[in-house]
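Sample pair:
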Amino acid sequence: MRRLIFAAILGLSSALSAASAEASSVGDENIAKAVFAGGCFWCMEADFEKLDGVGDVISGYAGGLMDNPTYERHDGHLEVVQVPYDPSKITYRELADYFFRHIDPLDDKGQFCDRGHSYTTGLFYSTAEEYDAAKAAKAEAEKVLGETVVTPLLELKKFWIAEGFHQDYYKTNPLRYKLYRTGCGRDRRVNQLWGDK
């Protein structure tokens, strides 16, 4: 569904260039970065930017071997978001817990209406401390849901920034984004799974 929306409006204009997206992810040296794959990167970007202590979230690709992936060609990669955050305001573990509560961690075939490997979930880590926090968050999600969580823990090798058109899509194309998110059933399924948990 999203590919059809994207194809229909690709020719309009890019909101940002990849270079400006990269520049916006650079900031205070006290800022840490976490990477999460939760299906549609537009939706993950919108969800994480609601959090206090989180900066401008960047959409991209990770997890594959291909250099310079693009939206049309990113075999092996997952759609991800890079989340810049201030560890004095929010921890990696808190981000990981939040991440699980905004995805369907029981689905290993994609997320919501987006199917296929590139839309599967993944919790990326760069350090032993992040790995331990990710593992604990996954165990907590399994405990709360009472089912096996299929979201893998993946070592981050490289984050590739997505095309400028994808950055801040929920802000630059609010109506199309809302139609996509509602039509895809994302919030409905998340609420069904997590409710008030």
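The radius of gyration is 16 Å.
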